[in-house]
Design goal:
Layout: H1 12-21, E1 25-31, E2 37-42, H2 45-48, H3 51-66, H4 69-72, E3 79-82, H5 88-98, E4 102-109, E5 112-115, E6 127-134, H6 138-149, E7 154-163, E8 175-181, H7 193-197, E9 202-203
Helix pairs in contact: 3-5
The structure holds zinc ion (ZN).
């Protein structure tokens, strides 16, 4: 640690090394449900199966929030929110690092995102929304909308990885990430390089 007390955040290269080492960053030939093809896939839960790795990633993300005066001044009366099950380990890790009071997570049921914890208006502290990865930003947008309907202010938002094609802010706040990844999407099999090379394809859920 630096004598000034400034805590370093690992570089994007260091984060990518962790994701490769844990198998979370995969190379190959992947087909998304929307029909797009890519040569890489982030299987983020693979990085979060190791407690020490999960902690390094969550602490690093938490530091991006702690340096924001608006956020730091509201701690610990803050809620950490995950848009989906994939973000739950991130939410618990960030909560731990920030000593935030509350955690909530949304789930998708029949295509509709909701909180199953029977939250009522006024019960939620100012919110920081965190996820493992932001691919399109849809999950974040839907979660921010849910929170808005509950009257809870969103004071922060972030993920371990954000695709650079996804929005870099919500309506309320900028999106923080440890890695911005410029994924090359092939719109269909017809223009996919791996299809042309006959690389076996794997269909991914999202
Ligand atoms: Zn392909």
């Amino acid at each position: 640690m630096a004598a000034t007390g400034v805590q370093l955040i690992p570089s994007p290269e260091e984060i990518m090394q962790i994701l490769k080492r844990t198998g979370a960053f995969r190379e190959g030939h992947f087909v998304y449900p929307n029909g797009k093809h890519t040569a890489h896939y982030f299987q983020m839960p693979l990085a979060f199966r190791y407690y020490d790795t999960a902690r390094v990633l969550a602490v690093a993300l938490s530091r991006k929030f702690r340096v924001e005066r608006d956020i730091a001044s509201q701690l610990p009366k803050v809620a950490i929110i995950s848009p989906s099950s994939g973000g739950i380990p991130v939410a618990f890790g960030v909560r731990d690092a920030l000593n935030a009071e509350q955690i909530y997570w949304a789930e998708q049921d029949g295509g509709k995102r909701s909180f199953r914890q029977y939250i009522n208006q006024g019960e939620i502290n100012p919110c920081i929304v965190v996820d493992d990865i932001i691919r399109s930003g849809k999950a974040i947008d839907e979660t921010v909308e849910l929170l808005r309907n509950l009257g809870a202010p969103v004071i922060g938002c972030g993920a371990i990885v954000r695709f650079s094609s996804a929005p870099d802010s919500t309506e309320e706040v900028p999106v923080k990430s440890l890695v911005e990844y410029d994924e090359k999407f092939y719109q269909s099999a017809a223009d996919c390089l791996m299809c042309k090379q006959g690389v076996p394809e794997e269909h991914v859920r999202f």
